[in-house]
Amino acid sequence: MGVGNVLLRVFGTGIRVLQFLAAAVILGIFSYYLAVLKDHHLTIATWIRAAEGLSGAACLYALLGSLLTICLAGITFFGFIAMALDVCFVGAMIAIAVLTRDGTQTCSGNVNTPLGSGPTNSNADGYGKDGFGFGSGETVTYLPNLGLACRLEKTAFAVSIIAAGLFVISFFLQIPIARSHKREKRFGPSPANGYTSGSTRNRFWRRNKKTNPDTTGNVLPGHPTPGEIEGGYKAEAEANTRF
């Protein structure tokens, strides 16, 4: 495998790892939102479930992509699938950014968050004693104030924009990876490159001029033709008659 191909695969794997980390951050934030809302018996909006599902799918795809990039990068079939999925997840990250657009607000004064709306230092309905549920006697997830909920949404918004950019990069990265893979197949191990894979070809100034092979030691002796044999016999017969 050529050095260029190895570098492309390492870079592609690094992009996939970053995608996984970005999706994992969003997934963790919305998992926390869902746990808080469920434990405190608050209404769970459909868009929160949607953001959770999209980030979870992106997390799984990026994890698998980081593994498959090492083994299958450059194969045309898998390259087309990866490019199609990259486009889908660019849309998914943009959708999450739209869903978390309240993250663009400053987290001061009155805010709108997935856990409720109000002043940043206030708590949503269902806060209970010390942030836990209403006297149920069971341990539930701690409900933060709306200021922290706002900052978490701001983080999810920013990370979704970054993740969308990472999926765009991996989309265009499939093209040079596929081309490098084709070059590796076309100019594979051979005497021209010392039986090492790669696309290295001899430069025109390094090419040796063709020389005539040495024929002095490997030439078989000539054999007479039937006509030459017959002529030889006649010449020998004439010579004998003279004597």
From TrEMBL:
Record keyword Electron transport present: no
Compositional bias segments (type: Basic and acidic residues): 231-243
Region (Disordered): 183-243
Assigned keywords, A-Z: Membrane, Transmembrane, Transmembrane helix
Extent of Polar residues compositional bias: 193-202
Residue spans crossing the bilayer: 17-37, 58-85, 156-177
Name under which the protein is recorded: MARVEL domain-containing protein
The species this protein was found in: Talaromyces rugulosus
